[in-house]
Amino acid sequence: MMEQRFCKKCLLKDISRDEYFKNVYEYIENLDEDIKAEDMLYKERLTICKQCDNLANGMCRICGCFVEMRAAIKKNYCPNNEKKW
Predict the structure, then answer these.
(1) Does 15 have pLDDT greater than 90?
(2) SS3 helix, strand, coil % of the chain, rounded to 5?
(3) Measured at the alpha carbon of residue 28, what is the angle toward residues 14 and 75, in degrees to the nearest 5?
(4) Nearest-angstrom CA–CA distance, 65 and 84
């Protein structure tokens, strides 16, 4: 069975919701270990983000990123003026 591929040139509105989320988590899972945050740090960051008033539908209202993707990269930080992580 051939795996269905995601079109890298498609807009979000052109992708099914399930396919979109699958691609986000595949991206996180396949990050190079040299740049990927350790699992405990990743979960800690997401816990902090879930308590923030700037989180809306998985996105940061300050910078527009998807917090799960931002938190997965160890060099990244909270974009708030008062960094939360």
Answers:
(1) no
(2) 40, 10, 55
(3) 120
(4) 15
| 27 Cβ contact list (under 8 Å, min separation 6) | 69
Full-model pTM? 0.81
What DSSP line would sit under 48-73, residue for residue? HHHT-TTEETTEETTT--BHHHHHTB
Quick: pLDDT tens for 18-37: 888 888 899 999 999 999 99
* DSSP secondary structure code for residue 33 in this structure: T
Count of CB atoms within 10 A of residue 2's CB? Answer: 4
The Cα 22–Cα 27 span in angstroms is 9
Are 59 and 67 within 8 A, CB to CB? yes
Which H helix or E strand runs over 45? helix 39-50
